[in-house]
Fold:
Amino acid sequence: MAMRMRKLTARSAILSALLGAHPAQAPVSWIVSVAEELGLQQSAVRVALTRMVAMGDLERGQGVYRLSDRLIERQRRQDAAVSPLLKAWDGEWYLAVVTAVGDDAAARTAFRDTMRARKLGELREGVWTRPANVEIALGPDASRRVSVFTAAPHDSPVELAENLFAPQLWARDAQRLLRAFADSTSLRERFEVAAAAVRHILDDPLLPEPLLPADWPGAQLRAEYAAFRTEFMAFAEQLLVPSEA
Structure:
């Protein structure tokens, strides 16, 4: 394979399978069957399920495991990243300046995580920005900390985007993932590549086309991942016994 992927574990296989399922739930027999098809031991899968319930990753009821609310939110972000909604870009940038002070370290960390999840880059401490080509909903907690403006940089917006979001680095890694998809020969290999691909897609800064490097691979990587997800879920559905279908 063209690049090293994270080693597939029972936990990662369960999470990836359920994050790709709609609704995000399945009977234990299906989860075990899917994991076994990926080369994992049934005993390891059952231990992982027990631990994931204890850790709050999964909920169990009536013989069905489902993602917790926290991971359902992750699934929503994942789905939105695979099929992003972009606006026409007129050259303006969204600018959020921190005006509230006095928060503790945990609150500041949570705020920074929120801003990064909304695809904002930190220009300097307390100043967050990005091209205004996506809808940004900060939520009440983050919104109370900032004042929001629209602006346009005097210097090169391409250089600013590169400094904030490193799209050339993202594109390089996306090309590696596309080669890994092409080189993978087994279901397990393709599953590992797909898991890495969707993590990478979540990190796509969603820049407007004028700010992207040439031959941007974002759409191609999304299409490759979506094709595998469709293929995998069709295969996985065949493992359901009639009473569970």
About this structure: The radius of gyration is 20 Å. The chain has a mean pLDDT of 91.
